[in-house]
Amino acid sequence: MALDPDDLPEPVSSLRTVDDYAALAAEHRPELRAMTAGLAAREREVFIRERMFLPDFGVGAFARWRYTTSTTRQLSPFAYDPYNELSFGLALLGRYSFDVPQKLAQLEQSRAELEKLERQRDLLTSAIRLEIEKAYADLRDAMGRAEGQGASEKQARRWATAAYAAFDLGTSDTRELTDSLTALGMSQGEKLKAWYDVAVGWRALARATGAASVLPPSSTPKAPPFRGTRAVIEAFSPCCSRSSRPSPWLLRLRFKS
């Protein structure tokens, strides 16, 4: 069984800056989102503690209406009639407590908790950025190796083509042909390994940012269509030489479903 490199999509080689991926991590990493929500809550707590030094003001109102048929309604304003009554009122309320030392202690504690959370956020942001920079550097290195191995595979393919043509014409022996095919196979294997490292690097960068995918929308590789199973069988005649006619023992068989 053999894997045809033409069946694999080429790796995506378009990278953005580290700052872009750091901004993406600030939106998708659950740790940073939880830290942001905690900071917002602590800031509101400090705001409330600062406002506790001010007096509380409010507006109050009441309305009361009573009516019964068991008694006679008193029309005189000086008569007390609790059974037939209509009254309402409006008042301005105020309250202030003089426990200033306790309020100062609560305010200092809230500010200290806010500062502690800010330091934790800075430390977490630095750690996530370091993780992103490492994944970014590994991915860029894998892209460079993939590009270099692609060029090497092209050179090995040209050598194998020229060696096969010379072998077919009888101007070369099997050693050069086997060396060229061996070099071609090794270069293809190294290229596929580099492509695999690029794919792993993209996933590592996506995991570092917390996003589902960091690939550009227009560059997302599509899976190639299924072409069936291929088998490659090669055989060489051991009696071939420069003076004899090449024996047609070199076979390449492909089986497709």
How are the SSEs placed, and which strands pair?
Elements: H1 18-28, H2 30-51, E1 56-66, E2 85-95, H3 100-169, H4 174-209
Antiparallel strand pairs: 1-2
Task: Give an account of the 3D structure.
Helix 1 (18-28) packs across helix 3 and helix 2 (30-51) runs antiparallel to helix 3. This protein is mostly helical and 257 residues long. The protein has helices spanning 18-28, 30-51, 100-169, 174-209, and strands at residues 56-66, 85-95. It has 2 domains: 5-48 and 99-219, Outer membrane efflux proteins (OEP) (Up-down Bundle); 56-95, no CATH class. Helices cover 54% and strands 9% of the residues.
Summarize the structure.
The chain contains 4 helices and 2 strands. It has helices at 18-28, 30-51, 100-169, 174-209; strands spanning 56-66, 85-95.
